[in-house]
From TrEMBL:
Pathway: Cofactor biosynthesis; adenosylcobalamin biosynthesis; adenosylcobalamin from cob(II)yrinate a,c-diamide: step 7/7. Coiled coil: none annotated. It catalyses: alpha-ribazole 5'-phosphate + adenosylcob(III)inamide-GDP = adenosylcob(III)alamin 5'-phosphate + GMP + H(+); alpha-ribazole + adenosylcob(III)inamide-GDP = adenosylcob(III)alamin + GMP + H(+). The gene is cobS. This is Adenosylcobinamide-GDP ribazoletransferase. GO terms for cellular component: plasma membrane. Its cofactor is Mg(2+). The keyword Transmembrane helix applies. It is found in: Cell membrane. The chain crosses the membrane at residues 29-50, 62-81, 109-128, 140-159, 203-223.
């Protein structure tokens, strides 16, 4: 379990884990199972930084939101943002599936990817600044959102075929040897929702958020299969970013 957690930190965050870890079936299973926990840690650290910035005599809501968005991006190493941008370039190229997959693998960012990234970040800043300006950002929800998005990612990967025959994601999924990571991920999501409800003493957003993640998984799965032939590492990262924005927006209407 510890190795799986370290692998999740090593591959899904910018935190340096300078250790050669074995990557077998057990480690891969734990890596995906505990990735939501890594998301919760990212959320906790990001909220702490934003709360510190907004302390007595501190920043206004927009700058506080900027600190939160910045920390979420920095701690994840920009990995998911890169996937979102690549998805924007590939999808809006309006090419056939194989060409879209080639564009996904191109490290360069084009005009459509830049616009997609811009609107994503502006969307997060707008929603979070509104949330913070109303009643402040509840720490339970700041932890729950990145947790739930990553739990949804594991469910998505569990039910979606791989669009490519090679790549980092294909390597890790291959290590699972048919193990359905979506089952423990769904359990983690439900437990995370219950914990967020107990911590915040509010049931509405955790309940709606958990349901929204399941719906987002199904919609995103069908969309990626239709437009890309399945899942890729970039699309996985894009799911996390899109799901986080969706959950922040839902929270805005639940307050």
């Amino acid at each position: 379990m510890i190795r799986g957690l370290l692998l999740a930190i090593q591959f899904f965050t910018a935190v340096p884990v300078r250790k050669n870890l074995p990557i077998g079936r057990k480690e891969a299973i734990w890596m995906f199972t505990l990735n939501p926990v890594v998301g919760a840690l990212i959320g906790a650290v990001s909220w702490s930084a934003a709360a510190l910035a907004a302390g007595p005599g501190g920043t206004e809501p927009f700058l506080t939101a900027f600190v939160l968005v910045l920390m979420l991006a920095v701690l994840s190493g920009g990995l998911h943002l890169d996937g979102w941008a690549d998805m924007g370039d590939a999808y809006f190229s309006y090419r056939e599936k194989n060409k879209r997959l080639e564009i996904l693998g191109d490290p360069r960012i084009g005009a459509f990817g830049t616009m997609a990234l811009l609107f994503l970040l502006l969307g997060k800043l707008a929603v979070l600044s509104e949330l913070i300006g109303r009643e402040g950002l509840v720490p339970a929800f700041a932890v729950f959102v990145p947790f739930a998005a990553r739990a949804g990612l594991s469910i998505y990967l569990s039910i979606t075929a791989q669009a490519k025959r090679s790549g980092v994601l294909v390597f890790f999924i291959g290590k699972l040897e048919g193990f359905r990571i979506g089952i423990p991920a769904a359990a983690m999501l439900a437990l995370g929702g219950a914990a967020a409800a107990a911590w915040s003493e509010s049931l509405l957003f955790p309940a709606v958020g958990v349901a929204a993640v399941f719906v987002a998984v199904l919609i995103f799965r069908n969309w990626t299969v239709r437009n890309f032939g399945g899942a890729t590492g970039d699309l996985a990262g894009a799911f996390v970013e899109g799901c986080e924005l969706l959950l922040w927006t839902i929270l805005l209407f639940c307050m």
